[in-house]
C-alpha cells in the first residue's frame, strides 16, 4: 500500500499516467525483456516462494490458467523443510536460503533414491500442484531417522544429503508431470503454434538448476524451447514491474490518468481459469523419463547428455 501511494504521488507530481501491474504477469513478461524472441502465445510455469502455477500467456493482458497449487508453493516447502532439517546449523548452508541449501546439499547425495517419496496428485488428471503431502512425507522420514540414530535437538541426520536429494527429485518430478500434461493439453486444443513452442520458467525457484534440468528434459522431448530469465530477473525485482509497464504502455492497456479509485487487490487470480476444462480432457501421459535425475549428480558429467555449456551460459 505504501508503494502504491508513493507511485500515485510520483505520477501526480510529474504528471504521468498510473499503470497497475499484476505481480505474476510481471514475472511472466520479464522473459520478453530478456529474450525478444518470446512471442505470444507461450506457456509459462511460475514457481516461487508464494506461487506455483502453469498458464498460457496469450497477450500482455490475457492469461489462461491451466493449474495452480492447492496448498504450499515449492519455495515455501523448501524453506520450511530446510528449517525443519536444521540445515542452517551446518556451516556450508548457514548463509543460504532454504532453496539454495537444498540444491547444494542434494548435489552431495550419493543415492537420491535412498528415501522414497510418492509423487503428489498422480490420480488427478489435471495440472494442479500440491506440496503439503511431500512435506509430510519428508517430516515422517526425518522423525524416524532422528529417533533411530538418536539425533539430539540441534543435530542433523547423517543421511541429510540423500534426503534433500529425494525431496528435490520428488518436487521436480511433480512439476514435470503437471507441465507435461499442460503441454499435451495445449497441443490437443491447438493453443500454441508448433513453431512457437516456448516455455518460460520464472519465479525464485526457477533459479534451481536441478529443477530446471528436469523441466528441460520435458521440453526437449516435447519440442519446446525453455526460456529462463537470469536469476536477478526470476526472483522478485522492480525491473520486471517496470518492464510490464512498458509492455502495457506500448499496447495502450491500463494507462490511467484518473487513478484515485485504483487500489491494490488482496487476491488477484492470474487470468481466466480453464482448470476445469483441463480436467475434463482427462489426459493420460506417458511420462518423460527422468532417469538421469535419479543418479548422483557427481556422475552426471560421465553420462554425456548433460549440457554443461548451457548451464554456464545461464550463470
Ligand atoms: C484444481 O484447482 C482448482 C483451483 O485451485 C480447484 O478449484 C479444483 O478443485 C482443483 N481440482 C482438484 C481435482 O483438486
Strand order of the largest sheet: 5-4-1-2-3-6
CATH class: Alpha Beta
Range of helix content:
40-55%
Low-confidence region ranges: 306-315
Intertermini distance: 34 Å
Number of helices: 12
Strand share of the residues?
5-15%
Organism: Acanthoscelides obtectus
GO molecular function, one term: metal ion binding
Domain Gcp-like: 2-243
Protein name: N(6)-L-threonylcarbamoyladenine synthase
Protein architecture, described:
Its EC number is 2.3.1.234. It is an enzyme of class 2 (transferase). This is N(6)-L-threonylcarbamoyladenine synthase. With 315 residues, the chain is of the alpha/beta class. It is built from 12 helices and 6 strands. The chain has helices at residues 2-13, 23-34, 74-84, 98-107, 132-148, 160-188, 209-222, 231-234, 238-251, 275-281, 300-303, 308-314; strands at 42-47, 52-59, 62-68, 198-202, 225-227, 272-273. Strand 2 and strand 3 form a beta hairpin. It is globular, with a radius of gyration of 21 Å. The model is unreliable at 306-315 (pLDDT under 50). 2-acetamido-2-deoxy-beta-D-glucopyranose binds next to loops.
Amino acid at each position: 500500500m505504501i508503494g502504491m501511494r508513493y507511485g500515485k504521488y510520483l505520477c501526480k507530481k510529474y504528471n504521468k499516467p498510473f499503470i497497475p501491474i499484476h505481480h505474476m504477469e510481471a514475472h511472466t513478461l520479464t522473459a520478453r525483456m530478456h529474450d525478444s524472441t518470446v512471442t505470444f502465445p507461450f506457456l509459462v510455469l511460475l514457481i516461487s516462494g508464494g506461487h506455483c502455477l502453469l498458464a498460457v500467456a496469450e497477450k500482455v493482458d490475457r492469461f489462461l490458467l491451466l493449474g495452480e497449487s492447492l496448498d504450499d508453493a515449492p519455495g515455501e516447502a523448501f524453506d520450511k523443510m530446510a528449517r525443519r532439517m536444521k540445515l542452517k546449523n551446518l556451516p556450508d548452508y548457514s548463509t543460504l536460503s532454504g532453496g539454495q541449501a537444498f540444491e547444494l546439499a542434494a548435489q552431495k547425495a550419493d543415492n537420491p533414491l535412498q528415501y522414497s517419496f510418492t509423487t503428489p496428485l498422480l490420480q488427478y488428471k489435471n495440472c494442479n500442484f500440491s506440496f503439503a503431502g511431500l512435506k509430510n512425507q519428508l517430516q515422517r522420514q526425518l522423525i524416524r531417522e532422528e529417533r533411530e540414530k538418536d539425533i539430539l535437538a540441534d543435530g542433523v541426520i547423517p543421511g541429510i544429503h540423500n534426503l534433500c536429494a529425494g525431496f528435490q527429485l520428488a518436487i521436480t518430478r511433480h512439476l514435470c508431470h503437471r507441465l507435461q500434461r499442460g503441454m499435451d493439453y495445449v497441443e490437443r486444443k491447438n493453443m500454441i503454434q508448433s513453431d512457437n513452442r516456448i516455455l518460460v520458467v520464472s519465479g525464485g525457484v526457477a533459479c534451481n538448476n536441478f529443477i530446471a534440468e528436469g523441466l528441460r528434459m520435458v521440453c526437449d522431448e516435447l519440442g519446446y524451447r525453455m526460456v529462463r530469465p537470469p536469476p536477478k530477473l526470476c526472483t522478485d525485482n522492480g525491473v520486471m514491474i517496470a518492464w510490464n509497464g512498458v509492455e502495457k504502455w506500448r499496447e495502450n492497456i491500463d494507462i490511467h490518468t484518473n487513478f484515485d479509485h485504483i487500489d491494490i487487490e488482496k487476491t488477484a487470480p492470474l487470468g481466466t481459469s480453464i482448470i476445469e476444462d483441463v480436467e475434463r480432457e482427462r489426459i493420460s501421459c506417458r511420462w518423460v523419463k527422468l532417469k538421469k535425475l535419479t543418479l548422483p549428480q557427481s556422475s552426471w558429467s560421465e553420462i554425456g547428455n548433460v549440457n554443461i555449456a548451457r548451464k554456464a551460459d545461464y550463470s
